[in-house]
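Example for reference:
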Amino acid sequence: MASAPDGKAQRRLAAILAADVAGYSGLMSKDEEGTLLRLRTLRREVIEPTIRSHQGRLVKTLGDGFLVEFSSPVEAVRCAVEVQDALVGDLAERLGCKLQLRIGINLGDIIIEDDGDIYGDGVNVASRLEQMATPGSICLSGKVYEEVRDKLSYDFADLGEQRVKNIARPVRVYGLHERAGAHDTPNDMSLGLPLPDKPSIAVLPFNNMSGDLKEEHFADGIVEDIIAALSRVRSFFVIARNSTFTFKGKAVNIQQVGRELGVRYVLEGGVRRAGDRLRITAQLVDATTGGHLWAEHYDGTAEDVFDFQDKITASVVGAIQPSIRAAEIERARRKRPDNLDAYDLVMRALPHVWALERGANREAMRLLGEALRLDPNYPLALSLAAWCRGQLVVYNWSENIEEDKRETLRQAQAAAALASDDPLVFTVLGAALTITHEYQRAATMLERSLALDPNSAWAWNRSGWLRNYLDDPDTAVQHFERSLRLSPFDPLAFNCDMGIGCAHFIAGRYEQAILWQEKALIESPSSLWIHRNLVPTYALAGQHEKAQWSMRELLKAYPTLRISDVLNALVFSKSVNDRIGEGLRLAGLPE
């Protein structure tokens, strides 16, 4: 870290702009080379010159995203608007594919490294604002808005106070280029029905886009089947058809619908049928904010309609389901510490389990230990404890790898003997068993998990890693993409990016591996274990300066690390580990 003459870290106030390409994973899966070419063109012809013209400094580009520092919030906002405007002009037609950016801008204190990189809450908030933005829009913090409101003539939408990960107080958020009408109504769910204590959804009548009134019954039938399928998910609160169909044929404001029906989520869409050809569009909206969570269209024939209905239902369930567990975690967090049972302790441990950070892992193990003292035969607590013990091994946090491997296997086997029908338990067991190279048993556990819950984003994530360990990178990428599609805002989404990066490394596609591993790092900069893979990837790609930088970052977290330590921890095949070792040697890490 850079130091001032008095030994203190260099800090300054700056406007930080964070941006990424919306739907990048889907674009890459459809046309990898074309998407990379378009992204490079966008950077060269629009992003970089626009940043320079507004006196900004491009701090870094990682994967599909970039981070920029400005001394003036006015110039930061002007730059963002100019970039977004360029993407709806001639450039979109010339690229042959409409790329959409999400942009977040914050004004805050930052810490500056010797190499020019920046850190701190000012950067973290900008990154979270970017994730809140809908494709093509810009989200500003209240601090930025106060600085620019009287200097710029744009129409700002007040999106209210929003909770931001790892920031104690809510952040006031304002939007630019927001979808028309999305924020016309105050964001106050208290004006309508109270929200149920579990995920709630209303499916609005789909628009008949065919122009033929005879097709109305066909569109209505699709919606009725989706409502019926969602109603079978016991943990969901689903509004009945008779209520949602009162909105048929009306121009609606989604947030108003949410208030009137007392639901957090709304599914809307349309159906177009021409002869035997069929197109169904669907999008899931968070009615409390108006923000889009998921959107897709399906093309085929009328014979495919039931398959399309299943896919829409699966995507909606996958997008909402993580909030079920989040609600339980929040309930346990608020409960009095002297009134916690084993279940509450496990709920409190879960966020720490998923953080994949050393300190968080330590706290998770403490909470799980307390849960197991209250209930030694609690399968979920046992399986999570096994996975936490396995994390010690795989992330080079263990002081005794062989002992931790044995304990991982012991707890995993104990949980397996007790588990019955909990897909989360099976997923955790699958994760733990990979650490001890029990690949066949791990596969069995993950298959059982996905049979019980095919919409589990974490199960698809762990299945992706298992495929990596089995030298099946193409299948791994498909499973990671499925996980991201089901839960794009999952706290483990960065781990999917890292998994895709490792899959490309396994396949020898080092340039693509770098893009995805860098993306994972910018999403989770505290996960310095990522550099164990970045160092050899940079080195084998011939990017030696970046390999040296990455190794310095790695050694900050692991000052005594050796190549043998890395290879003992990782559970890839011997041929993959050999290449990792080769890359680490090229970068100069000691044996």
Notes: The CA atoms of residues 383 and 429 lie 6 Å apart.
